[in-house]
Specification:
Layout (H helix, E strand, L loop, with lengths): L2 H14 L1 H5 L3 E6 L3 H11 L3 E6 L5 E3 L9 E9 L3 H13 L4 E10 L12 E5 L10
Helix pairs in contact: 1-3
């Protein structure tokens, strides 16, 4: 996976979801892997970017929770495997930040490992196996 391919995917997403993206107020990048695609997307749609960090204990550190109160936010990550990270983040944001809406965009969802019990709907490309991104090296 190259930066050029990622930029192309984000460009296609922006074109295909233009009306949806007009209503987005903030882009939230999930650290670490989601920050690069979130920054690219936020720049392309001219929306502010904030970061969310989730550690190995599932503790969430969120930048500027007061900014997203009553706002439509789009959470961006590079890949979703089980859906647990996005589910934890969604519940945290809804409980502690009171956004108007929370939507998700990931570059990829790994079909065989995704757990439907987490009930996280997202705009993404489905793949059958994991992939490596430039920022993984």
């Amino acid at each position: 996976m190259s930066f050029e391919e990622i930029e192309k995917m984000i460009g296609q997403f922006v074109v295909g979801q233009k009306s949806f993206l007009e209503d987005v107020d903030f882009v939230v990048g999930v650290s670490r892997g989601g920050l690069v695609p979130a920054a690219l997307l936020a720049a392309k749609i001219d929306k502010p970017l904030v970061a969310a960090y989730i550690n190995k204990k599932d503790e969430i550190f969120f930048d500027r929770p007061d900014w997203i109160k009553d706002k439509n936010i789009l959470v961006v990550d590079d890949i979703v495997r089980s859906g647990k990270t996005l589910w934890i983040l969604k519940n945290h944001l809804e409980k502690n930040c009171a956004p108007k809406s929370v939507s998700f965009f990931t570059l990829f969802k790994v079909k065989p490992s995704f757990n439907e019990d987490f009930n996280v709907n997202m705009l993404t490309n489905e793949i059958d196996e994991d992939t490596t991104f430039p920022w993984d090296n």
